[in-house]
Amino acid sequence: MTVSIPLVVLLGAVVFIAWRYLGLRLWQAITCLLFGFFLAATVVAPDIRRAVSAVLSWLTSS
What we know:
By secondary structure, the chain is mostly helical. The chain has three helices and no strands. 81% of the residues lie in helices and 0% in strands.
């Protein structure tokens, strides 16, 4: 997927904004980070990657 780095930066910015302005606590942000890290190591990761890629290609083709 060619948009992985910008997508990571965008999601990181969303987490930072949620932490800074919406009251997301540090332990909640760490929990989200660990969930994503461990989810990437499961057998579901390729399906999630394909779904995100399909949604992004649908959004950019419109």
